[in-house]
Amino acid sequence: MMPVGIVFALASVGGLCAFYLRARSGYKTNIYIKGELEMDAFEILKTDHAKVSSLFEQIEATTDTTTRQGLFTQLKQELDVHAHIEETILYPALKGATETRDIIEEAYEEHQEVKDLLAELAATPADNEEWSDLIIELKENVEHHVEEEEGEMFPQARTVLSAEQITEIGARLAAEKQQKLKAAAAG
Length: 187
Prior knowledge:
This protein is α+β, with helices and mostly antiparallel strands and 187 residues long. It has two domains: 1-38, no CATH class; 39-186. The protein has helices at 41-60, 65-95, 98-122, 129-160, 163-186; strands at 4-13, 16-25, 32-33, 36-37.
């Protein structure tokens, strides 16, 4: 029988405290090293993917223009920060490896497509039919990108990076994300 347990820990990265509640069933989740929680870079990014997916669902579920615009603002911020941390931390760590070079180049291109759609959406009124078409196109692009990352890139990256590198990148991703979100909230 596989062990089943709950890991409940407090992690501190760059002054940010976050509670992690994780179910564990027979596979490695987070482990402790000298009393600190190990941060898996890919789990951090998967959590971002889930949050973005939820925001898309919320946008689709409402027809209220003000609500849609507010949700889009959140979605844009999440996607901007997510792209930034991937492009400045994760992708450079993987671009040099033969196994991940092509998929990283494709990911940069997909990020640019998403950024272009975000700019179009930001310039289009949310009550416009074109806005609805653009949000559907954005969702499809993001879903495709997520499928490639989670289905191809992340597994390939795990063969290129050591466990220590994945942890170090995870800590850097979390710290940079915190800094970007704090800056966005302030200004």
